[in-house]
Amino acid sequence: MSELSKLARQALLQPQEAMLERGKKKNSLYIGIPKEISFQENRVPLTPLSVALLIENGHEVVLESGAGDAANFLDHHYSEQGALIVHDKEEVYKADIIIKISPPTLEEINMMRSGQVLLSSQQPSLMSLDHLQALMKKKVTALSYEYLRDEGNTLTVVRAMSEIVGATSVLIAAEYLSNVFDGKGLMLGGVTGVPPTEMVILGAGTVGEFAARTAIALGAQVKVFDSSIYRLRRLQNNVGSRVFTSVIQPIVLRKAVVGCDVVIGAIRAKNGRSPCIISEETVSKMKPNSVLIDVSIDQGGCFETSEITNHEQPVFRKYDVIHYCVPNIASRVARTATYALTNIFTPILLDIGEMGGIMNLIWAKPGIRNAIYLYQGHLTNKDIANKFNMTPKDLDLLVVSNH
Fold this sequence. Notes:
This protein is α/β, with parallel strands linked by helices. It has an eight-stranded mixed sheet with strand order 3-2-1-4-5-6-14-15. It contains 17 helices and 15 strands.
């Protein structure tokens, strides 16, 4: 770390009260919520009650008509709480702060004003250079949900979505095991005198933990595999009941997968592609009508036979195994996902207003600072910079020089 950077960090660690004196003025924010145009994105970042809270605090909210429809929040629910409903997307992009779910498309970036604040998801692996340069040209300050941390230093949005995806994936498995979808005709779990269904979960992260919890609650017999003893131990403690855990050993894993009724793949890569740990040969030996759910499909998937599907045609069969490989599982339960997200985003927006702008918030909260990947058009995220062979700017220095 350079001397300058050290000094900047020290400045950031000075008593916050002194620093926030000039940030005491309360800002009225102008917040825009556009309708999502990315394929099958059903979530919306704020619920009508959150909008009511923001408006009560003196902020303005403009919403593109139909933005909440897919999550069953209708225009009149928002307008009754004081939001302005517009039919022209360009009107929404006149707001000072744009909050949405998916990363903006080039068409949307072109509508943005210079110096806007953008809150959206943005995985480095999915970003293109054109999008990045367009945002930089507009001098946008952009925050990525994937990097957002809470006071406990947890990746808060990632964690919330992983909890939803973990529990939902087990319910999806239950659907495809039943006769309704030409499954095996099994009930997930078991009843007295009937052996329980067997489920294998790959990965003991948040998705794995919530999948195990849901499956155990339904009475299934669960086996969890992960390469990390630490994660397996944490899952064992968090789930509470004794669950079969094992490090990934090819022979044990193969035997478990071939003999089970459902296998859920939830192994995440830090950056880049998730490891592919189940071969086509193993899948071909699975029981007919077994269900395979690949939660890691957005990172390439952890089964050799996986291919991306969507909510309209979620499954395909290969070797008579039902494959479910939809990348955006949380959109199946868009309303629940929206409630989870609005609880994270509303306090952030209120804080921006209370502290007199996003700069003071970045100054005061390391978890927010961690999520900023563009600051007034300067790239500050190392992962994105590495991807495009660029040099990231030091956010601490940028903030201090602007204060």
